[in-house]
Design a protein that fits this description.
- It is a single chain.
- The chain has about 550 residues and is an alpha/beta fold.
- The chain folds into two domains: about 240 residues, pyruvate-formate lyase- activating enzyme; about 160 residues, Hedgehog/Intein (Hint) domain (Endonuclease - Pi-scei, Chain A, domain 1), CATH 2.170.16.
- It contains eleven helices and 21 strands.
- Strand 6 and strand 7 form a beta hairpin.
- The longest helix has 17 residues.
- It starts with a helix and ends in a 60-residue tail after the last helix.
């Protein structure tokens, strides 16, 4: 890429003018270029890049490095700043006045029923962009971006139909009913003494929540959005989708119909800062994981080339590390990785969910093809490096047949993978709704089955996990990929007899046994910390 052309694309103005982004500390400049259409790169100088993983879990790492924040997608959902937001004490606060840490009312599924629940506000941000006015029959007026989504009896729908590359996405129409808080009234979430949320009369459902008009508001307007724990909140009485936190970006980068602005924060000085941090006498040379939140080998790495310096800093300091990616750009850095592996333990993981090129195109648009990723595995192994493959996510009813799994594991073995782990689909709040919309469009015959399999939440039913594990175990053994379940300290082998899943705990969450041999560096002692976002799978 021509450096002069890139420099000429600098976005004028300070951080307060950046579309859809809060003010960024250390911002150097923001860049747009035709070669990355629709993406704005916010180049920053970071003070630190080593991140300790909070909490506790049986995952095999305690530190991460993320040279990028965001992976081609960020948030564009937003509403007018005067929109009243329902708080847990029953009062309403202007959207613009909501603060991080506030408790607002969101929703979650309890069994098959969506209920009101308290949820914390994790982030608040504002932007300026075109807006649309949605008028309801009861006189309520909602001002929102075209991408904003409201909950209706047919699921989450956008304000306007125009989606990615001219496609039409589910959108509001005149006569649509918006689901309001009154129809989900739930006494359980309220603090003692809080005023109740009155349920709607039976003959008033949907009542006044019917859309009368949807009209463009001339010019551009200040809009505001939140990130909440449930992925939604109550806006002027109706259930409103909100901005995804960056760490909930989907593992497969599924195209959510242009739901996200493309804002990528690039830590320009990540190699230099990391080199300084790992030279500190206080640094304990613990395992550092990369690719567990955002892929370090996303397309932008071809321009910024941060990973070679990061690899050299870790290897030169005696720090073991691992990389998880689906990006074939890693092949560029094989000389650096092999050099580092002579000094420190190195793990490499590649994700590969399926072989079918047509299904790949529909489920993983814009990502390297399955054949390209198999070739990457082969090149990693030819370079003398280990490589574990995550067969994830397995999609019930689509990619989980014995024949499909056998064929995929056979190709993975033929490519020379050190081991493989098979993980079923995980649906986080927010992405759950997106996936169900995709499923309704592409495979409506599976909707009832998915409702049953994921009736308890984000993780698939335990009986399904047990069945999948039982079917996968002999396939992995037959193809010589029994490194699935590799853990720190050199323990290998498939899940022990009696486990009810394919490397997950009793709640369905990934454990260290989720990691295939080769994906984790051989270090002497286990580290207990939170699981990687990237293995959350959708």
């Amino acid at each position: 890429m021509d450096g002069v052309r890139w420099d000429e694309q600098k976005v004028a103005g300070g951080p307060e003018e950046l579309p859809g982004m809060p003010a960024l500390k250390g911002l150097v400049r923001s860049v747009r270029t035709p070669e990355f259409a629709g993406i704005t790169f916010h180049e920053v100088r970071a003070r630190s890049v080593l991140n300790r993983v909070p909490g506790a879990s049986p995952m095999p790492f305690s530190w991460t490095v993320n040279p990028y924040r965001g992976c081609s997608h960020a948030c564009t959902y937003c509403l007018g700043p005067d929109t009243p937001v329902l708080m847990v004490d029953g009062t309403s606060v202007r959207l613009a006045d909501v603060r991080v840490g506030d408790l607002v009312v969101g929703t979650e599924f309890r069994g098959d029923t969506r209920s009101l629940v308290p949820t914390p506000v994790h982030a608040v941000w504002s932007t300026t962009k075109p807006a649309w006015r949605v008028r309801l029959v009861d006189g309520t007026t909602l001002v929102a971006s075209a991408e904003h989504r409201f909950l209706t009896p047919r699921g989450w729908v956008h304000v306007r139909p125009e989606g990615c590359a001219g496609t039409e996405r589910p959108h509001l129409r005149r006569g649509d009913a918006l689901i309001g808080a009154e129809s989900l009234a739930d006494e359980a979430f309220r603090r003692p003494g809080s005023p109740p949320v009155a349920p709607a009369p039976p003959d008033d459902v949907p009542g006044g929540r019917v859309v009368v008009t949807i009209e463009e508001v001339p010019g551009e307007h200040a809009l505001v959005d939140l990130t909440t724990g449930t992925g939604d909140f109550v806006a002027d009485g109706v259930i409103s989708h909100n901005c995804f936190a960056r760490n909930t970006h989907t593992y497969l980068d599924l195209d959510a119909g242009d739901d996200f602005d493309r804002q990528v924060v690039v830590k320009l000085n990540a190699p230099e800062v990391l080199a300084r941090e790992v030279r500190s006498p206080r640094w304990g040379r613990e395992h550092v994981a990369m690719g567990t939140n955002t892929d370090p080998y996303q397309r932008a790495e071809g321009r910024y080339a941060l990973m070679p310096g990061i690899i050299r800093a870790l290897g030169g300091s005696g720090t073991p590390f691992s990389i998880l990616t689906k990006g074939t750009l890693l092949a560029r850095d094989l000389p650096e990785l092999t050099a580092a592996a002579r000094d420190v333990p190195v793990g490499v993981g590649v994700s590969l969910a399926l072989l079918d090129p047509e299904l790949h195109r529909r489920v993983e648009p814009g990502t390297p093809t399955p054949r390209a990723r198999l070739d990457l595995v082969r090149r990693i192994r030819d370079a003398g490096l280990p490589c574990g493959v995550f067969v994830a996510p397995v999609l019930p009813g689509l990619t989980d047949t014995d024949e499909a799994l056998d064929a995929l594991l056979g190709e993975i073995a033929y490519a020379g993978a050190s081991g493989a782990s098979v993980l079923a689909l995980h649906l986080r709040p927010g992405t759950r709704e997106w996936f169900h919309t995709w499923l309704a469009r592409e495979h409506p015959e599976l909707l009832e089955r998915y409702a049953a399999l994921y009736r308890r939440g984000a993780y698939v039913d335990a009986a399904y996990r047990r069945d999948l594990a039982a079917r996968v175990r002999p396939l992995i053994e037959r193809h010589g990929l029994t490194g699935g379940g590799h853990a720190m300290g050199g323990r290998q082998g498939s899940s022990p007899e009696g486990r009810d899943d394919e490397g997950r705990d009793d709640e369905g969450r990934e454990t260290e046994r989720s990691w295939p041999a080769g994906a984790v560096p051989e270090v002497p002692a286990p580290v207990v910390h939170t699981p990687p976002e990237q293995l959350s799978l959708l």
